[in-house]
Design goal:
The protein is of the alpha/beta class and 275 residues long. It has a single domain, classed as Alpha-Beta Barrel (TIM Barrel). It is 47% helix and 16% strand. It has an 8-stranded parallel barrel, surrounded by 6 helices. The longest helix is centred in the C-terminal third of the chain and has 21 residues, at 230-250. The protein is globular and about 50 Å long.
């Protein structure tokens, strides 16, 4: 049995809100272990994230994991968000440092948390939250090395993290090598592969460049010449996504996390084919 989880982002417009809830309703029958809702750079979507999470709690049977970042906020502001989450029934938080609003080099708020380790420690001290953190099989763009990344992940685990979700990855071998490294480092919490199924290969390629995720040559070749053929891109995306998931499952991954981009159809087709 595979445990699925899905990530959504809070809507900006009435039209995008309809699309979000259509996606949530479409994926709900797959009985995900949890669904996460993102928190924009610098906490820019704080209110919209809160509203979206509250609606999931009140109007669905899904278990939300609310994202929380500490960038550009004082400890008092972040602690108030935690208290607000607790009040509406949130019991699972994805704890992240977050990106600066201008996407520049991270600088801690003078009265804020210094990093995600300190944030995780605070959440753990509440004693009521499941805590999920991020991890980077190809190294965080600001990290010196993959070994430094793994050491930082260990610090987050020591602070109280229960599981980690990876940055999206397109090559299963990268995940296998990363699992070997984390196991050798004594890490034993679940590390859940992040999967991004999409028909918009150009957008994904741009995102990958920004966050340091590699695009295999074979994947780029599959999309070559398909810019104006949506149906063909969709078939490629489903084939690639399903093959990737099956490869992970056959190598003992029992948890899969999907970055849905609020688009349910492709994710649903891949996940429903796994059963």
């Amino acid at each position: 049995m595979v445990n699925l989880s899905f990530e959504f982002f809070p809507p900006k417009t009435e039209e995008s809100e309809k699309k979000l809830w259509s996606s949530i309703k479409h994926l709900a029958p797959l009985n995900p272990k949890f669904v996460s809702v993102t928190y924009g750079s610098g906490g820019s979507t704080r209110n919209r994230t809160h509203k979206c999470v509250e609606k999931i709690i009140n109007e669905t049977n899904l278990r939300p994991a609310a994202h929380l970042t500490c960038v550009s906020s004082s400890k008092m502001e972040v602690d108030q968000v935690i208290a607000n989450y607790h009040e509406i029934g949130v019991r699972h938080i994805v704890a992240l440092r977050g990106d600066m609003p201008d996407m520049g080099t991270f600088e801690p708020h003078p009265e804020g948390y210094s990093d995600s380790v300190e944030l995780v420690k605070t959440l753990h001290n509440f004693g009521i939250f499941e805590i999920t953190v991020a991890t980077y099989p190809e190294s965080h763009p600001e990290s010196k090395s993959i070994d430094d990344d793994i050491e930082f992940l260990k610090r987050k685990i020591d602070a109280g993290a229960n599981r980690a979700i990876t940055q999206f990855v397109f090559d299963a071998e990268i995940l296998f090598r990363y699992r070997d490294k984390t196991e050798a480092a004594g890490i034993n919490i679940p590390i859940i592969p992040g999967i991004m199924p999409t028909t918009n290969f150009k957008n994904v390629k741009n995102m990958a460049q920004k966050c340091g995720a590699s695009i295999p040559n074979w994947l780029e070749k599959k999309y070559k010449g398909l810019d104006d053929d949506h149906n063909a891109r969709r078939e490629v995306a489903k084939e690639v996504g399903l093959d990737f998931c099956e490869k992970l499952i056959s190598n003992d991954y029992i948890n899969l996390h999907f970055y849905t981009l609020n688009q349910a159809d492709l994710t649903y087709d891949i996940c429903s084919s796994l059963y």
